[in-house]
Design goal:
Structural class: alpha+beta
Low-confidence stretches: none
Mean pLDDT: 76
Shape: elongated
Oligomer: single chain
Distance between the termini: 20 Å
Strand content: 5-15%
Largest sheet: 2 strands, antiparallel
């Protein structure tokens, strides 16, 4: 998934991407979660409107933290 979308002039570059499964790629593109500047995952409040299992799967993401790759 592109972190900065191509439509917003994001590059097709490994440093502008996340390796996600199909479910999480779709959820990221749909705006169910995003990345903060410090690489923490922020889950959208709209997740609360989802069925319980989906909510559990996505809310669990907030426990993760990504690390920046140094060039």
């Amino acid at each position: 998934a592109h972190i900065v979308p191509n439509s917003e002039k994001g590059k097709d570059d490994i440093l502008n991407g996340l390796s996600l499964c199909h479910l999480h790629h779709w959820a990221f593109d749909a705006g169910w979660f995003t990345l903060q500047d410090d690489f923490r995952i922020q889950v959208s409040p709209k997740v609360n409107s989802l069925p319980l299992l989906s909510r559990f799967i996505l809310k669990d993401l907030s426990l993760l933290r990504l690390w920046k790759i140094k060039k």
